[in-house]
């Protein structure tokens, strides 16, 4: 059996020996069937999703039905994990955005009283593992209200979502709200990630290189690099990262205090970054590459416990 996590931007698979991350944006013609066909050697699939929220769907239910249908074309007997903590074979509403819960389901006994922070390309989940009864039934909407979900991620967050102004040559300068640059650019320019780790499409569809990231970041103040100089462009990236760090620290401390968690564990492609900011246990180190696609690993583990 394989474990599958279908997000809005990436499709992740755990096949028992390792994890595989496929760029699969649902807002375009999506190759879900083609990607899963590569794993047709497996006898079945346990699936969890969050891609139903993609704006190509008129509602979350339409997204759920689309994803379930695509998966069943390859794995007719597939099982889908829901926010009720149960597996289903029909396109029920509970399937919406359950990928974070299945991680809690599998890890809550291994790491009691821990706070799990999972940073992906687009969002960051803040999950108190000692609050299972409260977590079940939560939607993305209720988690946003409760501070359990932040729409900031390692690669795809627009720079203008966190910055409104930046100091350029000592003068406060407004930031464009165009999607000129994103967190992937800021993290490349500040050395947090390599250009190889910048694995999603860039805002201008050019390369994730430092040169192109610099050019995109300069556009945030409607400038070319030559107009303001590389030092000032780097200052925009550093300002973004500083703001990002403060937002996450504040949100995590609030949840730690509310649920009386006594340690932090981190997962996802942003696990290494988070572990340095929070002096946390990096599951990438403890579990290897499984952590990069933890919901795919976890949904398979959760299903195997039921058989």
UniProtKB/TrEMBL annotation:
Signal peptide: none
The Hydantoinase A/oxoprolinase domain, residue ranges: 46-285
Annotated InterPro entries: Hydantoinase_A, MfnF
A Pfam family assignment: Hydantoinase_A
Single Gene Ontology MF annotation: hydrolase activity
Protein name in the entry: H4MPT-linked C1 transfer pathway protein
Lineage, opening ranks: Archaea, Methanobacteriati, Methanobacteriota, Stenosarchaea group, Methanomicrobia
